Amino acid sequence: MSHFAVHYTYVSDATLLAEHRPAHRDFLRSLVGSGLVAAGAYPDAEEPAALLIVEAETADDVATMLERDPFLVQGAIARRRIQLWNPPIGIFA
Fold first, then answer.
1. Interior/surface letters 48-77, b for 16+ CB within 10 angstroms, e for the rest
2. Structural contact between residues 89 and 11, judged by C-beta atoms closer than 8 angstroms
3. Where are the alpha helices (DSSP H) in the chain?
4. How confident is the prediction along the chain (93 residues), in pLDDT tens digits per residue?
5. In contact, 57 and 68? CB cutoff 8 Å
6. Alpha-carbon distance 9 to 45, whole Å?
């Protein structure tokens, strides 16, 4: 298995984000143990954004895993980047 860093940049619509955040978080919680290792927002980012760390075989597998994320389905994600991540040191090594 490989590790992937998934960078979400959210839309600036605070109402949309607040409305769908509970379902988004429930969805992500449902992936723990099935590939999602960690997820969290960047609290000091210039625009609303988050990082997810995912274990999977390929970037396509990550995209498939996340395709039902309510934030994605409801248009709350402005950009998503899935990047292979190689952590040779630390708890993910």
1. bbbebbbebeebebbeebbeebbbbeeebb
2. no
3. 14-31, 59-66, 70-73
4. 999 999 999 999 999 999 999 999 999 999 999 999 999 999 998 999 999 999 999 999 999 999 999 999 999 999 999 999 999 999 888
5. no
6. 10
- Please report, for the chain, the start and end positions of each structural domain, with discontinuous segments joined by +: 2-85
State whether residue 73 is helix, strand or coil: helix
Q: What Cα–Cα distance (Å) separates residue 88 from each residue in 14, 62, 91?
A: 37, 20, 9
CATH of segment(s) 2-85 = 3.30.70.1060
Q: Which two tokens stand for residue 57?
A: 């075989």
Whether the pTM exceeds 0.85: the reply is yes
